């Protein structure tokens, strides 16, 4: 069973910073991608940032230049450093893990952590 444990969410003022962490544990196949998604009230879940094997990263346009994703492969952990936060960044942030075995791809999700940007 795969478990993703997130931490680091909270309340921050506009312009502030937060760092999210997500540690994966359990038994799983080779990790392909670790990333973060978010879902604001009344909106669909969207990709925030993802880090693939080999160091390739991908960011939503809305967070480019403000957020940085990184991985510690030895710890099966992914981080999201969020700077210059805006009220529109308010959402529940979900950690995502993608693994594969042959042609099969498996998706795992964390329980979500609330990020609220407000003065």
Task: Figure out the total of helices.
Answer: 0
Q: Note poorly predicted spans.
A: none
Helix/strand structural class: mainly beta
Return the string of H and E elements. EEEEEEEEEEE
Describe the protein.
With 119 residues, this protein is mainly β. It is 0% helix and 61% strand. The protein is built from no helices and eleven strands. Strands 2, 4, 5, 6, 9, 10 and 11 form a seven-stranded mixed sheet that branches. A hairpin with a 4-residue loop joins strand 7 (67-72) and strand 8 (77-82).
Question: How is this structure best summarized?
Answer:
The chain has 119 residues and is an all-beta fold. The protein is 0% helix and 61% strand.
Features:
119 residues; seven-stranded mixed beta sheet; four-stranded antiparallel beta sheet; single chain; 11 strands; mainly beta; globular
């Amino acid at each position: 069973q795969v478990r993703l444990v997130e931490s680091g969410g909270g309340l921050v003022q506009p312009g502030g910073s937060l760092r999210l962490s997500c540690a994966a544990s359990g038994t799983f196949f080779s990790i392909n991608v670790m990333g973060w998604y978010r879902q604001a009230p009344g909106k669909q879940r969207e990709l925030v940032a993802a880090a693939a094997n080999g160091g390739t990263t991908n960011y939503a346009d809305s967070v480019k230049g403000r957020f940085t994703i990184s991985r510690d492969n030895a710890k099966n952990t992914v981080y999201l450093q969020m700077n210059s936060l805006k009220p529109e960044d308010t959402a529940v942030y979900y950690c995502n893990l993608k693994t594969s075995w042959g042609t099969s791809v498996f998706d795992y999700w964390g329980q979500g952590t609330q990020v609220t940007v407000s003065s």
